[in-house]
Amino acid sequence: MWGCDDVLSAQGALFLAVESLLVDCERWFRTVRSRNPSMVVPLDFIIEAWYFAPKHGVTFVEDVCPGYLAQNFVQVISSRSFVHIPYDLLCSTIESPNLTVDSEKQLCEAILSWVSASRQSCEQSVSNSADNQLSLLSKVRVCLLPLGFAAGTKRNCFEFGNNAVCMILNLLKDSLQTLLHTVTDDNLDSYRIRLTEYSKKIVLSGCPQLTTQFLYISALPTDLDAVFKRTIVSDVNDGCLNHYNGLVKKAKTLSFRNVRIVDLSKCPNVHFGAVILWMKWTFPELRTFIASYCLLFQFEDLQCLLLRCPWINEINLSIDTSIILSKYSIISSRSEVRRDVNRNLSSYYMQSGLYGTSGNPVFSNISKLILEGRNDITDMNLLEISMLKSSLCYINIKHCTLLTDDGISTLLLNCRKMHSMVLSYTSFGNHSIQTLCSLDPSDSFSYHKDEHAHVMAFRLQELHLEGCEGISCAAMSQLVSNMNIVKSLCLRETSLADGALCNFVGSSLEYLDISETVVSMVSLAPVIRRNSNLSCLKTAGCRNLLFEQGEVQSTSGNKYGRFLQEITSTCYLEDVEMGWAFCPVRVDDLIPSFSKVRRMTVGLGTTLPENILHALPEICPFLESLVLRFQVISDRVVRNLLESSTNLQVLCLHYCLGNLTSFSFQTMAPALRILRLQWVTPWITNDDLTILTQNCNLVELLLSGCKLLDTSSQEIISSGWPNLACLQLEECGQITLDGVDSILDCKALEEVLLRHTVSMKNSIPMFNRAITTNNPAEEARILPSKIRISS
Description:
Layout: H1 4-35, H2 43-55, H3 60-71, H4 73-76, H5 87-95, H6 104-120, H7 126-137, H8 147-152, H9 158-184, E1 201-203, H10 212-218, H11 226-235, H12 241-251, E2 261-263, H13 272-282, E3 288-290, H14 299-308, E4 314-316, E5 329-333, H15 346-350, E6 368-370, H16 379-385, E7 394-396, H17 405-414, E8 420-422, H18 430-436, E9 462-464, H19 473-482, E10 488-490, H20 498-501, E11 511-513, H21 521-530, E12 536-538, H22 563-570, E13 575-578, E14 599-602, H23 610-614, H24 616-619, E15 625-629, H25 635-644, E16 650-654, E17 674-678, H26 686-695, E18 700-704, H27 712-720, E19 726-730, E20 751-755, H28 763-772, E21 786-790
Parallel strand pairs: 1-2, 2-3, 3-4, 4-6, 6-7, 7-8, 8-9, 9-10, 10-11, 11-12, 12-13, 13-14, 14-15, 15-16, 16-17, 17-18, 18-19, 19-20, 20-21
Antiparallel strand pairs: 5-21
Helix pairs in contact: 1-3, 2-3, 3-5, 6-7, 9-11, 12-13, 13-14, 16-17, 17-18, 18-19, 21-22, 26-27
């Protein structure tokens, strides 16, 4: 039997053992935090430890956990347990200097989701919940939020969203003076992009208020004196890059070696010459640079980027490729209202003398180049791009209309390592096909038994030729017969016919688009059967799929069934676009082959029965986008779609028939972001529009034939959807009778189309006044980057 001394001795030993165990736990936790860049401790465990520690006097948890969550915040917010994080732990995490996020938008979204979950729980009083919400949102650096996102927060947090929009608009008026005043007050933190040693991705997309100064102050050491900071902020301009280069060296700009991706898309007010210098000094391991929708980024900037940041291997410089028909009058473009930019930087770009050296290894890393929509790219520029021949594998020059077949052919002749090409709506034609199908003298596959392996076309993995009308039938047949391992093939609106498609023997297809061609089942059926991994199939406009025979006869033994029978017996599709010959009758006809479909377009050539349309949420439980053209629809169908398809983000109804009423849209659709109603809802009134704003949060709206709308509709749209980015109104009554002033209150608008609306003559002066106004109170009004008016 134990005595008193034995008990005390055992308690002391137990205390020492527990103390030793806690020390080991603390050492392990701190080691994990310092050495492991990714999260290895489950969030649920950290939450339990946070609750456990204060009750049992464990102090190190309070010191270590916030920092650990901060450096892994991108992973933390993706966890289902994120909304269960205690307020004090979340607050400490956000205040940590190691807080690592891809963008300020990502942080704000996380806080709003936590706040929303907190409101629904009964753990806190209403007053405490409101105070916590304001406290957390106050930590967001609102001047770094995308304008469209900031406007969208007004729906649920009006005061926060309104203040954010006002601050962004004020920065657009004069960001330089604001920053200079901030430097004087030593309060730059709220304007700094969050950069830490753990940052991997920097996303600043959609921030028109962002200037080059924001980028540089984020990379400056915090201990610089105010005078030197003012010098740097004020000297970032278009004419003194060499001078500024010296200032950056003197300031010893911070370097973040883990950053791999920088996205500056839709940032029209940054000077890209200075941006390239910023990336050179700040991100020495950068791999991907994205600057899409930036019209001021010229080919000379691309040359400079290649020279100054040779470690980059992916570049995306795409711009808007939507077609503007001649019947539209373009009265405003964002580039027209910006200040003139001095582009005379060629001497600065070329001063090292490296650029232009044939085969220079400094460019050997560029493997992927996206120039979609760049109408300033010429054949000469393609010749200069050929310098990347040792590394370039992927190129996208879709809608680069100045390029010729000869220019593209020369690029293909020089860059023989390319295996992925998006050449849609270019002059790609017979000459380029001859290059693809000619023997490659430098081919490393000389040992291959297949004679086609010695041509460039054999190694193609992705080829998109949509709208390339300069290809003859013979050339198309030659090209298709040489592609054996292609995974993504788009021949939409080309000369593709049965004779060519019958020559295709590949079995690796995952994406196939043959819409608006004359192929029939005699050539398509064998392709479908051989390619069991096909997840995307687009055949809209292929009328010959209805016929038993196409232009070539079926070979003996090559039996084939109906179109629907072939695809349902072979494929598990995720993206479909169909019309002719797509005639399901029973729900079972589409299960299980359509059970993974996320995007569906059904158009001319078929009429889906109501039982199929009503069962779409059951047939396609993951449906995200649905486009119906010339279909017969009803309230029962549309309402069931909105109620049951919880992932539905895009709904487009074009020229559909049926007895549709306002009852269709009197239901919540929280996921819906894009709604296009083209000549299907003539009965819509302002009351219907108001209900629609309450039930869904749209970023794009198209209305055609809604003749009961009037001038009050503008206010309903702008206040109900403050984050609307695209608005198209066609034949919508008297909605523009008194001009378009309320439409311009949608600060996030990027595109406006007004067609055949009443008194358009009042709208044009309104836009012109917005462009030319000298009123300081109106200077910050943001014009859409594209305004189209058709009378």
